[in-house]
Amino acid sequence: EAARSGISPSSEEGPGEILRTESDWERIHLVKKLRQYLDMSLLIKSTAEPEQHYNLALALTDNWQMEEAVQEFKTVLKIDPKHPFAAMNLGFCYEAIGAKDEAISAYNLAIEIDPDHEFAHNNLGSVLEDHGQVMAAIISFRKATKINPGLAIAHYNLGVVLEAEGNLEAAIEAYKAAIKLTPNDAKALNNLGVVYKDRKSVV
Fold first, then answer.
1. Taking the mean position of all CA atoms in its chain, how far away is CA 149?
2. Of 34, 94, 137, 172, whose CA is between 20 and 30 Å from 128?
């Protein structure tokens, strides 16, 4: 199974930064505080800023409250339809709750907003692979690596689908690219060894 990128960091300093905590209790506390902050701002302003909803959505995602996060990311997109990270992270949350078709639509929206969004291309490839759309997944992963040759996870994912398709030489090159970027990637190292063994047995 192809690996996925995680949630992108907040686009602002402040609330988005302090939400990255190790303690579940602290995360829950921060979600409550940020909700209070948002509620207060809604009383003061006729419309809330999209980044307030976005930061709340990130907090909910960190706390694995995906259905609530979906609603907040959708609110961001209602206020700001051109917010690529909200669309991409909406797709991530949809995947987490098993709504694969909605995830594909969200990732495609992120790419429509920002055609060079490497994380959206990578994550789209992952959900397409889950749907059995292998060739489409390969195209998405290749786009991600073309946009950002330093995105190791996309090289790894490309190797996974190429290996599954029996394209061992191309899979080797993809795994090598991932390992060059992350030399201690145990999965990539293991998969490369397996592909070398498979190639030898084929010969």
1. 17
2. 172
- The pLDDT tens digits for 104-125 are 999 999 999 999 999 999 999 9
Q: Please report where in the chains the tokens 């070398």 appear, as a residue.
A: 196
Phi-psi region of 132 (alpha: psi -120 to 50; beta: other; left: phi over 0): left
Quick one: CA dihedral 122, 125, 127, 130, positive or negative? Answer: negative
Across the range 70-80, mean pLDDT stands at: 92
State both tokens at 105: 């639509």
Q: State the Cα–Cα distance between residues 65 and 3, nearest whole angstrom.
A: 21
Residue the block writes with tokens 């690996």: 3
DSSP helix/strand/coil, 22: coil
Question: What is the Cα–Cα distance from 30 to 10, expressed in whole angstroms?
Answer: 15
